[in-house]
Amino acid sequence: MSEKSLLDQWRDMAYDRSLSKDQLEKFWGKYFTIEREIYEQLLEDPDTEVKGTVKELAEKYGQDVMTMVGFLDGINESLKVENPIETMTEDTEVSLAFDKEKLYKNMVDAKADWLYGLPQWEKIFDEETRKRLYREQKASGTVRKPKKIGRNDPCPCGSGKKYKKCCGKNA
Description:
Layout: H1 6-14, H2 21-44, E1 51-53, H3 54-60, H4 65-75, E2 93-95, H5 100-109, H6 113-116, H7 121-124, H8 127-140
Antiparallel strand pairs: 1-2
Region (Disordered): 137-161
Protein name: SEC-C domain-containing protein
Organism: Candidatus Mediterraneibacter caccavium
């Protein structure tokens, strides 16, 4: 058995700098197809908790253990209780009980339209809810700076004086 954790092995394989751009695109294209198939199955019955060892889940979804580790890495932040992905082995008991809103928002954040656009979401959330979740997630990444107070603007403290003669005097 390798000294590296399963997660480190997955990341070494998935982000291998020695692979060409074409090889990486092929790898990720294949992975995203597998990921989509697993999510389709999970979203068919979103309220049922899927549990098992990493190896059992890999077999359940017809994947090798490394691909399952990649999937677990991707879904981990959307779970009700995160799995110990940094230290897991093939025999670690994991759960795929996910928070539906968090999962949808994380898919939007990852720009994974092939996942948040799955038809299974239509049975989980109505169109308005999906639009609201999409907007909330997009807005959460937007930094809004407050309007800068000019020297000659009225002071925001409400004194009626200019900012430079009031609170901005010592600024």
